[in-house]
Amino acid sequence: MDLEKIFPHPSFRKHQKSTLKKAIVALNDQDKDVALIEAPVGSGKSANNIAIANYFSEGKSFYTSPQRTLVKQLQEDYCPSGLAIDGEISDTMALLGRQNYKCRQSLQMSDKCDFRKSKIPCSEREDCTYNKQKEACKEANTIVTTFAMLITDSYLKLKKPSASFDNRELLIIDEAHSIEEDTASMFAGIEFSPSTLPEEVWIQIHDRIPHSEKLKDHMDLIDKVDDLCIDYAERLDIEPDDKDKVRHMTSKIEYFRQEMDNRRTWVVDLNEMGEWSRLTSRQAYVPTYTPIKVDRFLMEKVWSRADKIVFSTARFPFRGNIKRWLRRIGLRGVEYEFISVPMTFPKENRPIITRYMGGKMTNKKEKKHWDVNVNTVNNIINYHTDERGVIHTQSYKRANRLATELDTDSYYVHDRREKGDVITNWLKSGKRVLLSPAIKEGVDLIDEKCRFQILFKVPYPHIYDSRVEFIVKELNDWKWYYDKTAEGIVQSVGRGVRSDTDFCFYYVVDGSFKDVMRKCDVPDWFEEAKGL
User: Can you give the pLDDT at residue 123?
Assistant: First the structure.
């Protein structure tokens, strides 16, 4: 086995070659269905995943992730720098959503392009930037794309097989730890809002939304939305973006009805949205409908797309009982290989400091321990003079309250309006400390960008989320609850140390950390850094 030939870089990092060999032996020589690669930051798992895809080039591969930022990074590192329409083609090609490609004729982004309304479909146009990219991906050995795009393609395969990708031998999913939750909330679940429905449809239903979180009270609304979308799709003057919305919505409702026929449990959440001034001054609500189990959805829409699967992430759910996680995501009874990769960064550079841990910050005890724990935060910030750091708060409300009690005014609070720009805005602001409830993963804070992190609040899943509440209260699955918490902690630790010369101190303030560690397994690299 000549691993150097399939590896995308001139040399291997420590543990990279042995990990690659184990995965290929498991999938090819031992004919196992699934390889799970648990690898910390810095282990080079993306390069290994590309190498595994190269090994299976004859049968071709999908390489995907729920994190769009990671897919863009893979595109930058392993795909042509230009577009297929300009002749930039290789064995590994990336495809993102239409909004990322500009039409050369209309000079509009492809999702808004006027040519999509013409009698000649874009798929038949020689000069369509998006479709040229997609056609090149069909021929490539490896398609790099988002998890959302793969699922969209699976829906397309049912309606128009010729426009979709053929199934492949291998499916690689990076950052796989969040597959169950992402599928439930974003891919299988349904949301009725101005962003998911055409404006004319939303206008007709926004004031019919029941102020109830009982699913039976929403069935008439769901039927109404389905009828409106079907009628709307038949119009000749429909905008391309709206056409995509109604097709996607009717497909989701069709799956929802199948779930109801099989007596599967779904839950409802109602989220307030700001006044929509074009309609009314009355408060509007956005309903979301979420399945408790996603195994059937993943079996139909994802696992059916390939013969073998590679999962990779820093920590797998239920890592002490991988079979349980595989069952939850619809892979019951598969033959699998679990590969755990050691950390190569010195533990002294990434200490998890627990000696300043205070009282628990649970709902019942936060008030009692607030002042002492805030004092600890201030002591840590004052110790790290002139260094940047992040405080993980788990809620926007807590972040804003804590900001008012810091000894420094050199802080930046992550508010609800910010998405991917929060890190850029914080660094531009010149402020030392970022308070955020939402940067546990998908963020690269290398070197001077972050020299300390503070876990002010352990990231328990929000119990007011209907799916979380059902799993805990109705299914009594506290193991899942604590495991999701451990996953969030492990992910957050990896934000600050991104190379073997980098360093970042991780301080635990919330005393609930002890409960989570006692009830959950963590990788060896995490355990060895604790208490330093």
Answer: 62
Domain count, the chain: 3
Same domain, 231 and 272: yes
User: How far is residue 396's CA from residue 399's CA, in Å, rounded to a whole number?
Assistant: 5
Question: How many Å apart are CA 330 and CA 354, to the nearest integer?
Answer: 38
Helix (H) or strand (E) holding 323: helix 322-328
Distance CA 430, CA 413 (A): 13
Tell me the C-alpha distance between 123 and 132, whole Å: 8
> Residues 196, 245: contact at Cβ < 8 Å?
yes
Same domain, 245 and 230: yes
pTM for this one?
A: 0.92
Q: Which residues contact 12 (CB under 8 A, 6 or more apart)?
A: 3, 20, 44
Helix (H) or strand (E) segment spanning residue 325: helix 322-328
162-174 tens-digit pLDDT = 889 999 999 999 9
pLDDT tens, residue by residue, 14-38: 999 999 999 999 999 999 999 999 9
Query: Do 420 and 522 reside in the same domain of the chain?
Result: yes
Paired strand residues for 436: 392
Strands annotated E in 314-440:
336-340, 352-353, 389-392, 411-413, 433-436
- Write the pLDDT tens digit of every residue in 400-457: 999 999 999 999 999 876 666 899 999 999 999 999 999 898 888 999 999 999 999 9
On whether the CB atoms of residues 161 and 109 are closer than 8 A, the answer is no
Indicate whether 136 and 70 sit together in one domain: yes
Q: Residue 460 carries which DSSP code?
A: P
β pairing state of 433-436 and 411-413:
parallel
Strand 190-191 and strand 284-291: pairing?
Answer: antiparallel
Tell which residue, 244, 284, 46, 25, has the closest CA to residue 156: 244
If asked whether residues 169 and 235 sit together in one domain, one would say no
Q: Encode 204-273 in three state secondary structure.
A: HHHHHCCCCCCHHHHHHHHHHHHHHHHHHHCCCCCCHHHHHHHHHHHHHHHHHHHHHHCCCCEEEEEEEE
The alpha-helical segments, DSSP class H, found in 61-146 are 68-78, 129-139
User: Residue 61 has which token pair?
Assistant: 């591969």
